[in-house]
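Person: Please comment on this record:
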Amino acid sequence: MEVSPLHHSCCTWLPIRSRFASISPRMIPRVSSGSTRRRNVCLASFSSETLIGSRKEDGKRRKAVNERDEAEDLKEWMHKNGLPPCKVVLKERPSYDERHSAIHYVAASEDLEVGDVAFSVPNSLVVTLKRVLGNETIAELLTTNKLSELACLALYLMYEKKQGKKSFWYPYIRELDRQAGRGQLAVESPLLWSESELAYLTGSRTKAEVHERAEGIKREYNELDTVWFMAGSLFQQYPYDIPTEAFPFEIFKQAFVAVQSCVVHLQKVSLAQRFALVPLGPPLLAYGSKCKAMLTATDDAVQLVVDRPYKAGESIAVWCGPQPNSKLLINYGFVDEDNPYDRLMVEAALNTEDPQYQDKRMVAQRNGKLSVQAFQVYVGKEKETVSDMLPYLRLGYVSDPSEMQSVISSQGPICPVSPCMESAVLDQLAQYFRTRLASYPTTLSEDESLLADPNLNPKKRVATQLVRSEKKILHACLQVTLDFINQLPDLSVTPCPAPYAPSLR
């Protein structure tokens, strides 16, 4: 599985019987795509009466929808349409916010043993690009040159949404509405947070990643009209609605994030089938960094074989891939405090102004490094990573041409290391880790105090969990560096001046 709290100011991605369902083809003005008048008329149709209401009103609306539509749940609909008997049941837990619906999750309906097939969803109930676009070649062309699979799947479900109960996927879309892009902790992806909420991530590079991802979604939104015309099946099914006329960007973004939170990356299938939406899959399934169970494709279905015993009623988990906590938060809205794949990136770069830059670049490449090298610092592996960085940094500190010739003629990443050079390298590294730690507005102990508060806002909780995990890695790196400094034979040696020292970012 591998991409403004908008709910405050407009609709969540998709309460089914309001908003999009009320928009008829006649409401979409048939004028040129570049027309300002068309854009204004279209946006006017999404009036405050339709989209924007108080959270209290939205909560009442959700409750009414649930009471009216919950008679047949997702699993019943699936059984009616080909789902064979399975060993799971849908249960619910309350949301932290009473204005949001409770969270549904998949639990074992009976005791399960390792190797049991929990469920097997037939391909007729799985949404893939092959199904959406009807042509594998077109699907591969579009996702190679224009849009991501997530954008295509989101667009398809948004059009299906407009058909309301006429859509075959109505029960599944209704379930996605209910989840509203929330993970098992009931927290939305930071892509849907306000700027004030993103401030919880100050100091973390994840905050910039969120903005970059949001910009990417905007670029994909701007390509929707082109893709819609290229995709014959979409054009034939929905001939009256150009995507950017039918859906404002905010709505597309919410749909994109909701799809992102539940898409499954299938292995050993064609490119047009590798990203799939599987009812009973995530986010109804919990994610676990140490879980090894994955949804897998068979000839005619997608099934889940459990990797551990479950008691009846226990929530069932699947593996979310080797993702660091920053990706888990952006993609699914949660942080795994016991994540063995958590990591930070340290970027080191040779100084391009250095007269010996080309020689150093050649030596770095000979030893498997680049002129701009990203070092991944995995949790628990901080000493190994710092040790791997030191030869690269020492290379950057070499200034004497004769020493450089010695390095070029050597067969390994060995640089002549004087006491003052080693002191300078370690001093730069220690200062770098101190600077990164100082960029956070809170200390590690202050984070611990915040997390001890049972009433802490859930978004602030997951953000604090993230920055705490990052600080632990940085503190460990700093300690490793200080230990190396303390092992120097003479701590009184002044660090060498370095006119062309490598940079650290």
Remarks:
- Confidence is low (pLDDT under 50) at residues 1-68.
- The two ends are 29 Å apart (CA to CA).
